[in-house]
Amino acid sequence: MKISECQQILAASLSSTRIAAAESSVLWRVARRVYGMASAYESDGLTFSASGDPVNALAGFLYGLGWLHFGYSYGVLIRTGGASCPFGGSPEILPAKYRGQLEEKTRRYCRLLDTARSSVTVGPDPETASFAFSGQVLCIAGAYARQGRIFMDCGKFEDALACFSYGHGWLDAAVIAGLLRITAERELFTI
Length: 191
Hints:
With 191 residues, the protein is mainly alpha-helical. The protein is 65% helix and 6% strand. Helix 2 runs antiparallel to helix 3. It starts with a helix and ends in a 9-residue tail after the last strand.
């Protein structure tokens, strides 16, 4: 995955997305927030990229994609165009001058995602459909945390950072949607 390709995937996804919920409904407000956050992280990523900071650009684009993909899965957003996977293709290896920043940020985001995962619980009642989806969100975040650690252990820090950022985007969006309840470390979430 090339950073520019991640940005293109996010931009194309945003431009081919519409809100599925009825305007002024609770789900419409959730959808607007999820879409808005994905858009904000695309903007952040572009700013980082333009300023010569590919590490933070990568994190921003994948975090935004995590938000957006949550919205599709939750059903509050609809993609009207084709889908692309940001985890396909060969990874972009950043130049050596970014290695220290990349490794530090990747290790920090690994800890942040682990802490965030342990700081939430499923919010909805076990007898509801939302309960099952909340559990799926936790599984998705856990899967990306595990895959990120595998990449990190192999020295593939770009891929690891992408996984940690993407997984955290899913958690953050689920908190906004009311599917996960924060039990600790509230500052780790965009609430």
